[in-house]
Amino acid sequence: MMRLANKVVMVTGAKGGLGSFVTEALLTAGATVVGVSRSIQQSDFAHAAFHARAAELGSPAAARGAVASIVASEGRLDAVVHLVGGFEMGGFVEDTPDEVFAKMFELNFYSALHLFRAALPGMRAQGSGRLVAIGSRAAVEPGARASAYNVSKAALVSLVRTIAEETKTAGISANVVLPGTMDTQANRAAMPGADFSLWVRPAQVAGLIVHLVSDEAAQVTGAAIPVYGGA
Fold it and tell me: What's the pLDDT tens digit per position in 94-123?
């Protein structure tokens, strides 16, 4: 059964450590996937329903342009899966430079804000849509010496839940997934002494996102879903 047949899904960070799993899972479920990033290439995924869009999403105008190009080529946009983000330690709150806060908010909050604001008018017009963002366990269980990251991810959760409240009668859902440490190559390289068996499997997160994008999850909105693995 092709759960996402005839669905057009925009995925940011489509070829990243999590993004490759999410993109493959969406394609397997029957979706047309438009992967958007600065370095994405058509050759990154050998699937006829994958379309690469090399684009910068760091401003409202760029986000609007990317969304408009997808609608123009595909005829519609059914879902946005926003996987782009970043992490940086910053010391104690009082010692964390303003630049680190600005960087974390740009990567983890404003990128989602620009993109979702660009997608929402068209989704309202067609009476349907799915927005999914990747947050972090740190948004609700913050750790020490990562204040900028923690607060930016908490802001993302609030943004998604606000959108859900504003669109609950418009046929649109908005949800955020809160994974713990994920078992990616980058994380293994950064923490070689960790017990990888306790980490979150990207395929598990990808399967959850497929469900959230599907019609079966139409009434799931405003959820901040923890995926903590064995930690």
Answer: 999 999 999 999 999 999 999 999 999 999
